[in-house]
Amino acid sequence: MIENNTNIKKVVLAYSGGLDTSITIPWLKENYGCEVIAVVGNVGQDNELDGLEEKAIQSGASKIFIEDLTDEFVEEFVFETLKAGAKYEGKYLLGTSFARPVIAKKLVEIAHSEGADAIAHGCTGKGNDQVRFELAVKAFDPDMEIIAPWRTWELKSREDEIEYAKERNIPLPMKEDNIYSEDRNIWHISHEGLDLEFPDTEPDFSKVLKMSVPPEDAPDEPTYISIAFEKGVPVAIDGKKMKGTDIIKTLNKIGGANGIGIDDIVENRLVGMKVRGVYENPGGAILYRAHEILESITLDGDTKHYKDKISIEFANVVYNGKWFSPLRESLSAFVNKTQETVTGDVKLKLYKGNIITAGVTSPYTLYSEEFATFGEDGVYDQNDSQGFVNLYALSTKVQSMMKKKVKESVE
Amino acid sequence: MIENNTNIKKVVLAYSGGLDTSITIPWLKENYGCEVIAVVGNVGQDNELDGLEEKAIQSGASKIFIEDLTDEFVEEFVFETLKAGAKYEGKYLLGTSFARPVIAKKLVEIAHSEGADAIAHGCTGKGNDQVRFELAVKAFDPDMEIIAPWRTWELKSREDEIEYAKERNIPLPMKEDNIYSEDRNIWHISHEGLDLEFPDTEPDFSKVLKMSVPPEDAPDEPTYISIAFEKGVPVAIDGKKMKGTDIIKTLNKIGGANGIGIDDIVENRLVGMKVRGVYENPGGAILYRAHEILESITLDGDTKHYKDKISIEFANVVYNGKWFSPLRESLSAFVNKTQETVTGDVKLKLYKGNIITAGVTSPYTLYSEEFATFGEDGVYDQNDSQGFVNLYALSTKVQSMMKKKVKESVE
Amino acid sequence: MIENNTNIKKVVLAYSGGLDTSITIPWLKENYGCEVIAVVGNVGQDNELDGLEEKAIQSGASKIFIEDLTDEFVEEFVFETLKAGAKYEGKYLLGTSFARPVIAKKLVEIAHSEGADAIAHGCTGKGNDQVRFELAVKAFDPDMEIIAPWRTWELKSREDEIEYAKERNIPLPMKEDNIYSEDRNIWHISHEGLDLEFPDTEPDFSKVLKMSVPPEDAPDEPTYISIAFEKGVPVAIDGKKMKGTDIIKTLNKIGGANGIGIDDIVENRLVGMKVRGVYENPGGAILYRAHEILESITLDGDTKHYKDKISIEFANVVYNGKWFSPLRESLSAFVNKTQETVTGDVKLKLYKGNIITAGVTSPYTLYSEEFATFGEDGVYDQNDSQGFVNLYALSTKVQSMMKKKVKESVE
Amino acid sequence: MIENNTNIKKVVLAYSGGLDTSITIPWLKENYGCEVIAVVGNVGQDNELDGLEEKAIQSGASKIFIEDLTDEFVEEFVFETLKAGAKYEGKYLLGTSFARPVIAKKLVEIAHSEGADAIAHGCTGKGNDQVRFELAVKAFDPDMEIIAPWRTWELKSREDEIEYAKERNIPLPMKEDNIYSEDRNIWHISHEGLDLEFPDTEPDFSKVLKMSVPPEDAPDEPTYISIAFEKGVPVAIDGKKMKGTDIIKTLNKIGGANGIGIDDIVENRLVGMKVRGVYENPGGAILYRAHEILESITLDGDTKHYKDKISIEFANVVYNGKWFSPLRESLSAFVNKTQETVTGDVKLKLYKGNIITAGVTSPYTLYSEEFATFGEDGVYDQNDSQGFVNLYALSTKVQSMMKKKVKESVE
């Protein structure tokens, strides 16, 4: 037993039903002499949830909570980030990054209501997720003990884990060889490992992808859709009002069928290393692009330009696990203020991986023929241009005069 | 004659051979009583250059200079911006923006060598180009007189212009009805006007596009290419060394055939209005994506993240006509320092509008299996994670402790 | 009469009672054949308001409104900017910049209620204030006609103005020779002109200053004060609750007596030129420093660092006349979110131009002995440092390994 | 002996001669069975260097290197940062932050030339310096072993250390009770600890300060000095050319005598906690202010505004120990480009803690009477203003039109 562990009586474990968190149950019991409560936060991984209760109990958990966090996840995390236009390193839609905090928050709630002494998670010591989990836990309870077995135990390989499980009669998941390491929720799937660890090689999408088809396999005919937004939040597809989770599910289906939202990137982890992953975000890619298009007619230039910088910061903060922080909340306050007029309809044409603009309208549009044609008696007087250019160029002129003067003084 | 114009004896005119700049020649002569020297800056518009000399003289110019600026344009403007990763409003590759300064610089040179008193351009008073032209002129000669007939003359329509031309026996370009307003050079074509002025309507790409086919019309088989970079600059395609202009021409052809690099956007002009345009950048889109992919393995995270902010500023500065400015040069100094290790090869798969990563390598890669697998005795010790997370989370913990204390003090 | 002016029947004029705006009244009447309504926006210039009514009527105004905007100015403009920590170019506390919008807003209100066709102001064509005025007017009424006589009339000097006034029996202000051009309100005084136009010369503060004494003339004994803030807004001095305007007045007096808040700077105007000014901001300097000190214990590092960037943008936006804009409002939303815990007391020692920290406390402090001493069983475990440093350094290590490898491969 | 330590045969120790690093010598020998080479990096702590050789040998070192790094420190670190205008959190001039890397670089050089296996330092696990040291070591040798005894040994108090020293006959420094923890070099002194740990109390500057007098004790007469810069670097005082270190020494003396450059701040450490310190930077404060004043006439507005953001990043990067990083080098490239015209003379009046501008000139000034007075036939035509304001306001007008239209459509 780990020294000083006798004060841990009850542990809440972030449980997925996979091999890793399954063997964590007996490991915690053996090393801490504690009761283990399994908690599953459902953020849309869906089909993976079947049979979890039985499996957890059989693995030694005293209790299991299966919490449906999908709506909360979508409304308060996914859409908040969509409004910010935040993409980590210009590409990654943060699907895993904000799934950790929503789950961690629930873990603390259950730990409090169940009187647990500690929270355990199955993240490895190499990744970002340990940081995201633990920061979120501490944000809600600074004194909560956190246990991360992966950083300390002696199990060094999948084989070690299987043996450890067999010795304790833990139900083994069906054998899957050579599978990519995957994180899935309603918003995305990420794929890592195997041949993806070699950035010099092209992945075989037909083997990697689960939500989408490769562009080559998409239909030869384009699909048109229309998305309605209210204050930056998607509210309807093709005129049909839906709640957030349904919008994402619908778009995942349509987008996935058209080969949309596949990204293959090398990203910089918080902990100083680069990792290569393939992401599937069919619905996300469509929503981000639609939102951008709507903003292109509803945000003025100054706001757009500064918001682009806010987006970068927002993405970094969320990627680095600081969802529950004053900075993220302040960035969101900025973003939400900008979204007050981001209301309207965007029509898109989806075709073999392409998202093509097919029309955008908004009651708050800052673009309209009235402004754009600038007829002779319109809002724009070309005579103003001369003065504008002269004053706008004044700083340039002054510098040029200085240079001329310096040059002459030298000669 | 315009008052106070008697001191203008010789004008250098930025000449294109189109109707607008053709009638500017007699207009200048009639209104200023001056000699007009036509200057054509070739930045890759190519086929539009035939017969220009004859046309200029026939329109009344005393002389014409046709200057091939293509290499300078590509090496010193296009690639400098490519290295910066600068896209205006996240999309526009600045094809028109940096073509104006390179031409303006040449105009000043010729004005000086020919002893001209003024420089004239054919930009309207509604757009960005007048600003770009005039700032660049002033950067090289603060005292040079600038004449912009479009902002002042009484010709209000194409019909007015044609009549004006006919009256003076100016050779008319072949009649083209209902054509989009277009700006073309080796890097891009932009299209504006007609139905594009209505953002709620989908453009008919088959009518708009000139360099590219729509994705639907691209081949059913993907095309693979490999691009080599040295210090951020493309130097070879498929292993064959080429100069910059040839690289762009080659990629325009390949990219155009595969429906790559078509963007349909509403952008914010410097002068406060929104404009909708369709851009074709087949080669540019490929080069930008390839460069990004190479940077993803050769730049460290800190540098990448800050450079993303520099990119936004770089794009704004260039879009707004300040190419020749201390700020742009200082931004370039930053960028060039970052590019010292951006050397390597990027393989891409082009397919119906998609640019798909097919492998990247670099002698300076910061990604390699050695770092990535992080085996037990490798560079990464998972035991370090605990300490890392604890200290990284310290600020969060301290805030959480404060909140708890405040809450308790209230209760 | 100016052509096309016959449609202007009634003009609302931003009136100060000075020579410039006094002669504007007959000028408007003569050139537009209109009625002129004078409006004085009191933002704390105080003593300059005596006798204005009589003077306006005598100068030909049909009516005068003297509006006390001081509280609104302080609560909604000054403190909003104080919370943002915004200083233009790191120095200027924006005293003139946000006084223009609050007045312009009132002008539009009165123009609407009085049924006026146009708004006139007395700003010159060389400065920032014309921009600030006109943007604010347009923000509330895009169609309101704006008249800026200074940009167009033929009066080229003070002598011209005096003669113009005499001819029309306009009451002349007392003769003041060689006075600095000055803008005053409750928040600040700015001084420009005369010898200040030469940055190579030291100003004679004894001649320039009006609110403050030079540091040399301040008392030999320091003055201690204590300022209480609630959510970033000052609410009490030395324990005595006061409304905002009284806090500023009190601090102006104390600060002015101690030689606080004098700045002598060369700043970059929006319209491309540099101008040199001396600013007096005794109360402002104290409030900014006190607020900063309080934030140093109540904001976490991430928030502080990003807010420092927001401050720069906020200052630029306000300086450039865009108070009433989505960007400024979004920046304020960010700022206000950060201020939720900026509550507490700051004690300062004022001594001959110095503001010296003499103690700060807050119920929301993120600094406390408990966190700071970090005793052995406290919140901080030094053993964590090793892991932290190792992972924090990982990116550096990886780069260093790459360089070593490259170097070896070359040898 | 620490396990796995047998492979360490020779250690290079960053040695100061204080109690902490003195006892580190026997501790390393006892725990690693290794030879210890003491290295002192002189960055201007000066008087602390006497008798160090004898002391190191007596403490058990086999050898000592006393390296004068002062010129390198000043030219390549201090002035590089001065040019950037970088102040951490707007205040701290980074005196300790960049002293660590210059020393660490030398440690690696000596470790390589002496064939050492490891580098040891005496930084605690609570501070920033461990990070700065170790990142710099890794930047030059990714494989170098680093030993940080303070993070692991059992000595928990000064008393423990003294006993440990006595037992081994280590020469004890003269007894000093209740002294502030201090870091000193040619650029600054920092003070921490004792009553400074309580931000609610005013420090007694007469007890804390060593380089400066409190403003109250400064002379009643001001001191005037003039500083000449070339490309952002100070090169002369009062017309007398001096090398960098002499400039700083001279200004420290003058500034210190006038109570200049004392800062009392609560700052955010990298490792998530706040610390309160008093800094003395007499020469630094003068140089920063002089440099700022010179930039106010030599940098154009755009460059100044963006450089202010670069300054913040530069300070963060240096504070966080990343001196030797591509990002810092790229930021420096930006900065150095901006400094090409930052040449000229700045005259200052120093008086009891105040630095007052007394005149600035530059051959590259962008301010001059010629530009500033803007006479009637000068570079500025007031008629341009109308057009400028109209176009500059266009975005505001368009938004206002939209709002009006929306409002009308609702009514």
TrEMBL record, chains A, B, C, D:
GO terms for cellular component: cytoplasm. Its EC number is 6.3.4.5. GO terms for molecular function: argininosuccinate synthase activity; ATP binding. GO terms for biological process: argininosuccinate metabolic process; L-arginine biosynthetic process; urea cycle. L-citrulline binds at residues 92, 97, 128, 132, 181, 190, 267, 279. The keyword Lyase does not apply. The keyword Protein transport does not apply. L-aspartate binds at residues 124, 128-129. This is Argininosuccinate synthase. It catalyses: L-citrulline + L-aspartate + ATP = 2-(N(omega)-L-arginino)succinate + AMP + diphosphate + H(+). Belongs to the argininosuccinate synthase family. Type 1 subfamily. It is found in: Cytoplasm. Residues 10-171 form the Arginosuccinate synthase-like N-terminal domain. It is an enzyme of class 6 (ligase). NCBIfam families: argG, PRK00509.1. Homotetramer. Pfam families: Arginosuc_syn_C, Arginosuc_synth. It comes from Anaerosphaera aminiphila DSM 21120. Pathway: Amino-acid biosynthesis; L-arginine biosynthesis; L-arginine from L-ornithine and carbamoyl phosphate: step 2/3.
